[in-house]
Amino acid sequence: MKNYKAYCFDLDGTVYRGKEGITSAISFIQRLQQIGIEPFYVTNNSSKTREQLQEALIAVGVNAPLEHIYSSALVTAKYIARNFPGQKVAMMGSDGIRKALLNEGIEPVEEEPEVFVMGIDRTLDYTALAKATIAIQKGATFIATNQDIKFPTEYGFLPGNGAFARLVGEVADVEPIYIGKPSPAMLEMIASQHGFTKEEMVMIGDNYDTDIMCGIRFGCDTIHVNTGVTPTSSVLEKEQQPTYVIEALI
Ligand SMILES: [Mg+2]
Question: In sequence order, what DSSP letters do the residues of 99-125 get, joined into one string?
Fold first, then answer.
């Protein structure tokens, strides 16, 4: 395998499954750190803040500097600040997206939003879904942090933000703007903030439709690992192949 300067790891299904670490990936990360390469982490999970993601990594034995951790919440908030300045923003989701919006100077509103942003909320109820569909029917721009239908945990697959965003979009008859992978936004941000060229970067992930497509759209090399959402057998049937298809990182 070629040597890179920026190894960008997906988290769920690549570095850990729920609270369980994926040992092959963790020892690969530790070996990179021993030779002076500090990897990056690129997650569609919008529920956690950078600090909470850092804690989740420490819990499985990975020390990561905060500025190497990128989430769809962070990038979504920056996208809204840049493209909808001064507009009233309502949100559904947890700490991750709320803190990211506040960091951009956006205080979420309850009534008459011009933008509705949707991240995963694990305490989701019918009223919240109803409010979202109404706000979007009344014309609020519909933005979802990510389109993952499901994510792997130690118990099996659980519903992801994409499942709920699709539900709301179907009812309101509006297609959401999705910000997380496969959009190349997070990799673009790493390249510009840390000064890497595409040739120096590689995207590593378990999900073909998000991780691998993100790398392909961005234009860097990709590594698919068979430890999460997309089985290797389905990856091999795809027209656009990852640079490397492996069972696990060794
Ligand atoms: Mg994943």
Answer: HHHHHTT----SSS-SEEEE---TT--
